[in-house]
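The instructor's notes for this session suggest beginning with a concrete chain rather than abstract definitions. Hand out the sequence below and ask the class to guess, before any prediction is shown, which regions might be ordered.
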Amino acid sequence: MKSIKTRFNEIFQFFPTLDRSERLHLIQQIEQNAHSDIDFIMMMVLSTSLASLGLLADSTAVVIGAMLVAPLMGPLLAAGFSLVQGNPKLFRKSLAVAAIGLMIGFMASVFFGTLYPGFEPTLEIEARGKADLLDLCIAFFSGMTAAYAIGRSSVMTTIAGVAIAAALVPPLAVIGIALTHGSPHISLNACVLLITNLVAIILGAATIFRLLKVHGALHGSAIPVWVRRATILLFLSIALLIAPLLIQMIEGRRIGQDRPLEYPVSPQVREAVKQYISHWPEAEIITQGRISVEPEAGIFILLLSAKTLPHDFEEGLINVVHKVRVDKPPVKIFPVLSASGQRPANHSDGE
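After discussion, reveal the predicted structure:
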């Protein structure tokens, strides 16, 4: 009977291996990317700042740009490489560098979050608060792809695309921004996504480096105890993450993809409208929003009313909105009469 290791080697015998010069070049590149020097610190500050601004501005292009320049992939690949090489010093150093990068990114996101108090969570922000099992698979294959790209110089041009797929900095930025905006649920889900990406990328990278046969420091089957323990810990982390990721996937399939029917109004407009409606007990807000990003498209307010509202009600509501929005956009009010003629109890305003 053939051993599992023998069968494994037979299956992947077609996989390319690295010669001595390629291995030396790979080791130099890996160790160079696992330094927390001034370049790493500055790129973390700049990439997280760019990601935070892109998330606040709801700009997909800016967020993608932040992914491209983020340096976090380097220490994660080094961590996966050190597991295969059996290098505890490089492993500890890689995790320390990654931790420094995460701390810098978190502080930068909190800083930008505090500059925009009361800002509405954008689609880009909320997208990072809904991780599921697909994100785990994406992160694992991103780690594999990045490791293969850095190990095979002929495909190094694909590393930029891997940086986009990995999406490390955006969820990190969302954690700080969502906390400062009073959205702990989004922040927690973004944290789950970030941890998922970190763990899966390390395991994916280790898998490819193993297939590339760069495990020169491992003599035969004598895998160091710390490598076994670290690998088990990583897989346990994945096992713990599967439950919330699976729940989120099931919930997403049940509810469907989130696509807004309208753009949110500013917090000032929303509060002013609510304050005005509170003086009219027969009316209740269903929803309010902006029809488009164009100012002339205006604002719409959908109301539930127990009876026909007087004309001065609409005029007063329009004046309230114009007082807050000095550009005086068009305001369209849609009152809906309740079927029973009574204001229903415990009705949400739909926001």
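Then share the key points. The chain has a mean pLDDT of 81. Residues 225-255 form the longest helix (31 residues).
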